[in-house]
Write a structure and sequence with these properties.
The protein is an alpha+beta fold and 151 residues long. Helices cover 58% and strands 13% of the residues. It has 5 helices and 4 strands; from the N terminus they run βαβαββααα. A 4-stranded mixed β-sheet has the order 2-1-3-4, with helices on both faces. Strand 1, helix 1 and strand 2 form a beta-alpha-beta unit. The longest helix is centred in the C-terminal third of the chain and has 47 residues. The protein is elongated. It starts with a strand and ends with a helix.
Length: 151
């Protein structure tokens, strides 16, 4: 699986350049194999990128701006979705790649599973406590009724 990052080497936009650098720098830091495909110097790359970004992911003007990220021919997303995945510590899932062994992403998954288990345990305890409280209230009401009837 090859991650393809479509970039514009001669973009006049500082914002686009920063976004491209952020994506590439982060992929390098994670040691993810990727290929840079320049849409400014290669018309085939530009056309392929534009044709393969899903219609519902294209901006209102219909022309997706770089960086655009693919796993082989599968669309992963643009910079905003990449940034969200980075913030959520889910870049490997975003890229459609398994996290490397011992990575923080794997640890995060294990922590998530542990949190879910703890939350379930907490909910179970709370339900038990609520049931006990309900039973006590019913017993108290029954005793109060018995006392009223006895008087």
């Amino acid at each position: 699986m090859v991650i393809k990052v479509f970039l514009a080497s001669s973009s006049g936009s500082t914002a686009i350049k920063k976004k491209q650098q952020d994506v590439v720098g982060f992929l390098e830091a994670l040691k993810v194999d990727y290929t840079e495909l320049d849409i400014a110097c290669n018309e085939d790359n530009r056309l392929w990128m534009r044709q393969n970004v899903p219609k519902d992911k294209k901006p209102a003007n219909g022309i997706p701006l770089p960086p655009q990220i693919f796993n082989e021919d599968s669309y992963c997303g643009d910079y905003e979705t990449f940034f969200d995945a980075k913030e959520d510590n889910s870049v490997f899932a975003f890229l459609g790649l398994p996290p490397p062994p011992g990575s923080k992403a794997r640890e995060g998954e294990e922590e998530d599973e542990e949190q879910v288990y703890c939350l379930q345990e907490e909910e179970d305890l709370q339900s038990e406590e609520e049931e006990e409280l309900r039973q006590l209230e019913e017993e108290e009401e029954a005793e109060a009724q018995e006392e009223e009837e006895a008087e």
